[in-house]
Structures are given as structure tokens and as C-alpha cells.
Amino acid sequence: MSSGNKNEAVACCTSIVGLLASLFFGKSNTNDQSTELQPQQPVVVQQPPATTWQKPPQHQYDQQLPSQPHYDQQVPVKPNHPVSVPHSPPSQQHHVDDAALIQEAESLRDQAHKMANDRAKFYDASQAAWNSGNKADAKEQSDKAKQYGAKVDQLNAQASALFFKAKNAGRGLGEIDLHGQFVREAVRLTDERILQCRQQANGQERVTDLVVIVGKGLHSVGGVAKIKPAIVELMQKHGISATMDTPNAGCITVHLE
């Protein structure tokens, strides 16, 4: 090939290469300008707001659960009354407390209480006189204390009899009410009644169970029953079995056979 032809061929190749380069790189630059990347922004993912559970007001629960009781209110409860069981046959149930007798008995108890306080004062005076060497005065004060003591016993005995009459009128032999009695009086009366039940004459209905109404101790000092344990001790002394709170609370059923 001649040099002219070579130059011409080189020029042609150069032109072709330049054209191709122009076409290729020129298009690439255009694309770079049109699709220029923007600075990358951090992708923020929107999280749903945290749900904080709060207890609805009480009234909302009440509306949602109408069948449920309001726990912040008192729910009425029926009192658990003991089942009333007659202590003796119906034909013997004619007892009604005699209000006049009870009032008189309470008055006698009050008088006895006052005289018992005076008796204590006389005993204190007697002791003081004795300690001071005045034996004559000590004896005089002691005698007064004894006189007051006898009167106290008399008044209490009268009150006991009235309480017993008022509380036991119309009751059968198989039932005894000890309300209003002092402990020693209650023990004596129960002991006497047990003896009566065991000495029933022939032809009379035998009493196999004696119901002793001792009360619940609501009127005792400190609300602690005193008659009930004394009667239990009496049953142990006699070797008699008994059932507590039968047929009602505050009763003792003594099994005589």
C-alpha cells in the first residue's frame, strides 16, 4: 500500500475511532448529567407510635361487664342466722319474758353492786385501823363490812330468782335459761336441774337431753363468755357428755343418758 493510501487509511480509522468515542463517551456524559445521583439521604422508617395501655376508669369496666359486681362497693350478704329449732316440744313453747320481773331483777342487781362497793370500803377501813393499832375500830369496820356482805348476797339471790322466773316461765323440764345469772348461780341452777331430770318419777316422761341456754357472752365483761365454760366444767365433773351450740348458738345440749 502506498504511503498516501496508508495515511488515508489511518485518518479514516482515526475518524472512525473518534466518532465511536464521541458517540460512546458523549452519551455517557449525557446520562451522567441527567441521572446525577443526589446525596444519599438516610432512610427513616416510620415506626408506629408505641401503644401505652392505660386502665380504663372503673365505670368503663362496669359498663363492659354489667353482670359483675362492683368490687369497690359492699355486696350485701344475708346474715347467717342459725336455724331455729324448738328446745322442747311445741306444746311446751309458751315462754314470754316478763319485762316487769326483769326490770325488778336488774334493780336488785344495781343495789347489790352499790352495797358491794360500800362493803369493800369498810374492809379497807378495817385494815387501815388494824395497821394503825386501833383494833376496836378495826373490828367495828369489819362487822359493818360483813353486814353489807350479807345484804349483797340477799339482793343477788332475789335477783337470781326473778331472772330465773322471768326467763323460764312456760319452759319444760328439759330446758333451762341461765340469762341474768352469775356464774355461781348458773352452776347451782344447772346442777339442781340435772338432779331433777334424773329423779323423774315413774309415769312421767323421762328427760334424756337437757338444753342449757348459756348465751353467747355478749353481755359479759370483754365479750368473753363465762357461764358456758363453767357449765362445761360441771359436765366434766359429772362425767356427762354434752354438745356445744345445739340446737342453737349459745346453747349446750346435755346428754343425760
From TrEMBL:
<feature type="compositionally biased region" description="Polar residues">
    <location>
        <begin position="50"/>
        <end position="71"/>
    </location>
</feature>
<feature type="compositionally biased region" description="Low complexity">
    <location>
        <begin position="75"/>
        <end position="93"/>
    </location>
</feature>
<protein>
    <recommendedName>
        <fullName>Smr domain-containing protein</fullName>
    </recommendedName>
</protein>
<dbReference type="InterPro" id="IPR013899">
    <property type="entry name" value="DUF1771"/>
</dbReference>
<dbReference type="InterPro" id="IPR036063">
    <property type="entry name" value="Smr_dom_sf"/>
</dbReference>
<feature type="region of interest" description="Disordered">
    <location>
        <begin position="31"/>
        <end position="96"/>
    </location>
</feature>
<dbReference type="InterPro" id="IPR002625">
    <property type="entry name" value="Smr_dom"/>
</dbReference>
<feature type="compositionally biased region" description="Low complexity">
    <location>
        <begin position="38"/>
        <end position="49"/>
    </location>
</feature>
<dbReference type="Pfam" id="PF08590">
    <property type="entry name" value="DUF1771"/>
</dbReference>
<feature type="domain" description="Smr">
    <location>
        <begin position="176"/>
        <end position="257"/>
    </location>
</feature>
<dbReference type="InterPro" id="IPR053020">
    <property type="entry name" value="Smr_domain_protein"/>
</dbReference>
<dbReference type="Pfam" id="PF01713">
    <property type="entry name" value="Smr"/>
</dbReference>
